[in-house]
Design goal:
Blueprint: E1 11-15, H1 19-31, E2 34-38, H2 42-46, E3 63-66, H3 79-86, E4 90-92, H4 94-101, E5 108-114, H5 119-132, E6 137-141, E7 155-160, H6 163-167, E8 176-179, H7 193-205, E9 212-216, H8 220-228, E10 232-237, E11 243-246, E12 249-252, E13 255-259, H9 269-284, H10 289-298, E14 307-312, E15 315-319, H11 326-333, E16 339-344, E17 362-368, H12 372-378, E18 384-387, H13 390-404, E19 408-412, H14 425-439
Parallel strand pairs: 1-2, 1-3, 3-4, 5-7, 5-8, 6-7, 8-9, 9-10, 10-11, 15-19, 16-17, 16-19, 17-18
Antiparallel strand pairs: 11-12, 12-13, 14-15
Helix pairs in contact: 5-9, 5-10
Length: 440
């Protein structure tokens, strides 16, 4: 685990006992901190009977370490966070503890990736390309192991960082910071898109003049950010950028590097952006063109992210359960043809109407869960049916796909969070994959 010697002797509260919270507790105890923990979920507290438990809304501490899923500001700070701030305690997350501990770690670099969509694929792809080139890279943060559970090593830490994590971080200076995109999401945690974007921008503000910034400039948000940052910017995205995928070819300043059709796990326009970002980072770290091309060709898709999970006859099945907002789903709907589309889930205030622009390849839609009526009302121009559960929607999609008699794709790309019927997006994807396996 990451050594937190600077926390020795301090009174520390840990709010939230999920994976990152438990990793923080372990690292803090190992460092000699006096740790008090709390989780609002009684079930989580029952599994933590080895810890000193105390409601932190009334417990004075020197430092409060909060899990990223807990609101810092909007719509209101959690009572424990409000109490800590009013009593002069420092409030941060586990990424900030990592940042404060970096001087004690072996020689290393930090690559940090943020954006609304594509973070996990880009994070995994960067680590894959670096390791394939013989450079030790370790994944952590919002994707992969909790950051404080990582082993100190002479390596490159490749960190996916969410806006929630960045809100809690003040001193992480990354060697290369990556911005992919900004699309509407998490309206339950941000008063506006400006507030959401400001949380992402913190990654670059912490860099100052240090390191490099890899920024997708095919959006106004990316273009504004590129003008705002103080350090060297490597542009990706549009054909005029330093790195781009132009007509299916990955190019660096116009020089062809590799063809997208040679990367079976990285199809679609969204993965073109992910590949350009990963290539830009790895080239900046010394990976040659041929190493980048070979690494892209050998990359395996992550689970639940445009993941092929089987084929029967002419029907292919795609698990894109990680698409929890409309923009992520729009990317998925552009990547396949003759789509029988499964979507729906829990409501987090998303506007689905933009999806109507991306349904030309959708033969029929099957909306399920809490948001099914909203999807049907807002996604006009597509034949759709409503179902209470995903398995009933899947059965109908499979029936219609079989009756079509043509090559087609059943795509789970929900455009919604999963918490109405599933533990998380991974659980939803696992259930979908199990349904596919029953068919196979």
């Amino acid at each position: 685990m990451i050594p937190l010697d600077h926390m020795s002797g301090k009174s520390v509260g840990v709010l939230g006992l999920g994976a990152s919270g438990r990793a923080a507790v372990a690292a803090l105890i190992a460092a000699g901190a006096k740790v008090t923990a709390w989780d609002d979920d009684a079930a989580a507290r029952k599994t933590a009977d080895d810890l000193a438990l105390q409601d932190l809304a009334s417990q004075q501490v020197d430092v409060l370490v909060s899990s990223p899923g807990i609101a810092m500001t909007y719509p209101a700070p959690h009572p424990a966070i409000a109490f800590a701030m009013s009593n002069g305690a420092a409030v941060c997350g586990d990424v900030e503890l990592f940042a404060q501990a970096r001087d004690a770690l072996p020689t290393h670099k930090v690559i940090a990736i943020t954006g609304t969509n594509g973070k996990s694929t880009t994070t995994a792809l960067i680590a894959h390309l670096l390791n394939a080139a013989g450079i030790n890279a370790v994944i952590g943060g919002n994707f992969g192991p909790p950051i404080l559970s990582l082993t100190p090593a002479e390596c490159i830490y490749v960190l996916e960082l969410s806006s929630f994590q960045l809100e809690q971080t003040a001193s992480l200076v990354s060697d290369i910071a990556v911005f992919l995109n900004l699309t509407p999401d998490h309206s339950d945690r941000y008063a506006s898109m400006a507030h959401y974007g400001a949380a992402k921008q913190r990654l670059f503000d912490m860099q100052g003049h240090a390191g490099k910034a890899v920024i997708a400039v095919d959006s106004l948000e990316g273009q504004r950010l590129a003008k705002h940052v103080k350090n060297q910017v490597i542009s990706i995205g549009q054909p005029y950028a330093a790195w781009c995928v132009d007509n299916g070819t990955l190019k660096h300043h116009g020089q062809a590097i590799s063809q997208q059709h040679d990367w079976p796990a990285l199809q679609g326009p969204h993965n073109a952006q992910n590949a350009a970002a990963a290539a830009a980072v790895c080239f900046a770290l010394g990976v040659a063109y041929d190493g980048i091309a070979a690494g892209l060709a050998g990359y395996q898709a992550l689970a639940h992210r445009s993941q092929p999970v089987g084929q029967t006859g002419q029907i292919a099945f795609i698990n894109d359960s990680k698409a929890t907002n409309p923009d992520a789903t729009a990317k998925s709907l552009q990547a396949y043809s003759n789509i029988y589309w499964l979507a729906g889930g829990s409501d987090k205030g998303s506007d689905f109407s933009s999806l109507a622009e991306h349904i030309k390849s959708v033969r029929a839609a099957y909306f399920f869960g809490q948001t099914r009526a909203a999807l049907k009302a807002q996604v006009s121009g597509v034949k759709s049916q409503l179902f209470e559960t995903m398995d009933s929607a899947f059965a109908a999609a499979l029936r219609d796909a079989r009756q079509s008699g043509m090559a087609c794709t059943i795509v789970l790309s929900p455009a919604c969070a999963s918490f109405d019927q599933f533990r998380n997006f991974a659980h939803r994807g696992e259930v979908f994959t199990a349904l596919v396996k029953e068919v196979l």
